[in-house]
Amino acid sequence: MTERKGICCSGNWIVDRVKTVDVWPQEETLANIVDEESGTGGAACNVAIDLSRFAMGLEISGIGLVGKDPDGERIFSDCRAAGIDTRFLLSIEDAPTAYTDVMTVKGSGRRTFFHNRGANALLGPEHYPLDELDCRILTLGYLLLLDGMDHEDPEYGTRAARVLAGCRERGILTVTDVVSEDSDRFSTVVTPALPHIDYLVINEIEAARTTGTEIRSEPELDREALQKAATILLERGVKEAVVVHPPEAAFGLPASGEGIWRQAHRLPDGFIRGSAGAGDAFFSGVVAGIHEGWDLGESLGFANAAAASCLRHPTCSGGVGSAAEIRDLAGSIPLGEG
Question: Is the N-terminal amide bond of 128 cis, ω within 30° of 0?
């Protein structure tokens, strides 16, 4: 096979219906919807589109399942417009395209998700044509939100772990993300995949639940505990680096070398229009850096700025700029303290 290049984004393909509300209501009370938009979302879709929006000349493809319905057609249409190769993105009749109602509070940008798993629940190893892939990197997200991939595997622990192992056997780098689920499934679903992941990119909630480490005592972030959690994840098998991204800063711990902190940007009042997709934009920034061979510190700084750019729009990717625009943004907005 010729030298590998490009990035294949696999996992969740979703349509998001983003509603901005004036307050987050108590049960049996009312909140007003002040704005609403819809857009494509999910780890695979967001990362593929964000990478395209970076305008770095990357070859981008996708693997996943959507329904034969208008939402599925919208995903294909957005991919075509972004120049994403959809040969391995399949349309099925057995389930609808996955969708999420995203409720974003106007004042804080905090969002809450109500999700229908749809076709994503049926994705399995049989949908990964590993011998046909010529990509340098395969991304997989989100663990804990792909029922067929999270299912137990007698040899690898989970079916996701089987796919990741198959990629690494073929010389494909694996980069993986996790969903912030409120459950005790992290040890049984995430842990078996760790030895087959080259780069793990997650937030502090997911790092805490996977390792059993208390990282945040609201509102304070325990940086020492976060570094400990990253060390545990490397000890459990992650091969190249663990990246953890709380809102305050990003931390990267390579398998060989010292940990690196990069502060997030201090955004002006009124800058944030929604936070749906910001984590995926950060992930995309890290993936771009891996593909281009940047050092970890540069990748973290770019990823922080990419996430900031995403916050300018209520949909998952509408605010994400080109790499040049992201670097300009990074230079124009100060970093937080700490």
Answer: no
Q: How many domains does the chain have?
A: 1
What CATH number is given to the structural domain containing 244? 3.40.1190.20
Whole-number average pLDDT of the chain: 95
2 assigned to some structural domain: no
Domain of 268, in residue numbers = 7-332
Task: Kindly report the number of other CB atoms within 10 A of residue 290's CB atom.
Answer: 22
**How does 124-152 read in b/e, with b if 16+ C-beta sit within 10 Å?**
bbebbeeeebebbbbbbbbbbbbebbbee
Which tens digit of pLDDT belongs to each residue from 131-150? 999 999 999 999 999 999 99
- Of 328, 252, 317, 225, whose CA–CA distance to 279 is shortest? 317
- pLDDT tens digits for 164-213? 999 999 999 999 999 998 889 999 999 999 999 999 999 999 999 999 99
CB 161 within 8 Å of CB 192: yes
3-state secondary structure (DSSP) of residue 311: coil
- Residue 223 domain-assigned (yes or no): yes
| Global pTM value | 0.93
Answer yes or no: is 303 within a domain.
yes
User: What's the CA gap between 281 and 265, in Å, rounded?
Assistant: 14
Determine, yes or no, domain membership for 1.
Answer: no
Distance CA 12, CA 42 (A): 5
pLDDT for 2 equals 56
